Structure to design on (140 residues):
């Protein structure tokens, strides 16, 4: 019987060593796979962070462009109003050119100079060259 016990002990020892080897091999295999998964995850996380930064940059640039667009639209609306007023004024002048100077909102104030001639105030401050003297040398 010692022969059977001897063989059974070697057989059990062989099975225990085989199970231990398989357990160690599985542990090493899964550790390597886990390290690969962690590395891939970190790469993806870094890529995601870079994409988030790039997205934030583009969103801020889009916000600036959107603000510039709003300003341009406001200017365009203001210019549209000015254009409408000018075109209405032109049509009014075209319908009645004689009364255009009397009703013009942009006309210069008119006053009479000492000689009794009506002039625009923008030109009233200019001296008349015909009556100007040069330090007593006479008129031109």
């Amino acid at each position: 019987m010692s022969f059977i016990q001897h063989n059974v002990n070697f057989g059990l020892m062989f099975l225990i060593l085989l199970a231990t080897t398989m357990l160690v091999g599985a542990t090493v295999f899964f550790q390597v796979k886990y390290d690969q998964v962690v590395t891939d995850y970190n790469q993806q996380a870094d890529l995601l962070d870079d994409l988030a930064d790039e997205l934030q940059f583009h969103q801020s640039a889009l916000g600036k462009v959107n603000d510039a667009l709003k300003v341009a639209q406001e200017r365009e609306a203001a210019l549209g109003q000015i254009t409408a007023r000018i075109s209405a004024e032109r049509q009014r002048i075209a319908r009645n050119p004689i009364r255009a100077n009397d009703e013009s909102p942009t006309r210069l104030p008119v006053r009479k100079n000492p000689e009794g001639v009506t002039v625009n105030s923008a030109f009233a401050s200019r001296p008349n060259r015909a009556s100007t003297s040069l330090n007593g040398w006479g008129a031109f």
